[in-house]
Amino acid sequence: MRILRAAEHRRMPWKNGRGETVEIAVFPPDATVDTFEWRISMATVSDDGPFSIFPGIDRTLSILEGAGLELFVENRPPVILTQDSAPYPFPADAQTTVTLVDGTITDLNVMTRRGRFSHGVKTVTAAAALEPTVGLLLMLCHRGEMEVTHGGNSGTLKQLDCAMLEGDRAISLSGSGTGFMVRLSSDTKM
Questions:
Q1: Cα–Cα dist 165/81, whole Å
Q2: Is there a smaller number of Cβ atoms within 10 Å at the N or the C end of the chain?
Q3: Strand, helix or coil for residue 38
């Protein structure tokens, strides 16, 4: 288990230059926004407009703070995402624009390079036992505090801390927190 503390997340401009993103984790570790295999980040959206285009990337978006947004993804019907919405997957290379529902939001972005990695995102509460997983699992604490136990290791996550877990060991969560579980798996034999 490796814990990534919120204070250590890396801040950088959006690919399209219209805002700022907070990078939680990326692979490979020295990857840029054009060369990553997978990336987990948060972004503050304060204006209506286009999302950055990421060729060959699949993306899942979740709302962390704010009233939400209406998402317009090329060749799909518009969808309104709020903090209560399930994480929403879509291709990051499709033309995508957003209209804010009522002011600034902060979102969680999970992105994987198509054909190399795939991902799944779901919301979790701290009182849970999870099945062992193959591949990499990241647990992000959204609100409150959660204790993550993975095999014989445990650690406490505070708001926006993230635990990286690898190996097929049992996982349990305790405490009063809520968050997001991200499963990453390789689509290729390396």
A1: 28
A2: C
A3: strand
What one-character-per-residue DSSP string does 153-168 give? EEEEE-TT-EEEEESS
CATH architecture classification, 117-186 = Sandwich (2.60)
* In the chain, where the domains are located: 2-113, 117-186
1-13: pLDDT as tens digits: 999 999 999 887 6
Q: Count Cα neighbours of 104 within 13 Å in the Cβ-side half-sphere.
A: 6
Q: What is the pLDDT of residues 81-134, one digit of tens each?
A: 999 999 999 999 999 999 999 999 999 999 999 999 999 999 998 887 777 677
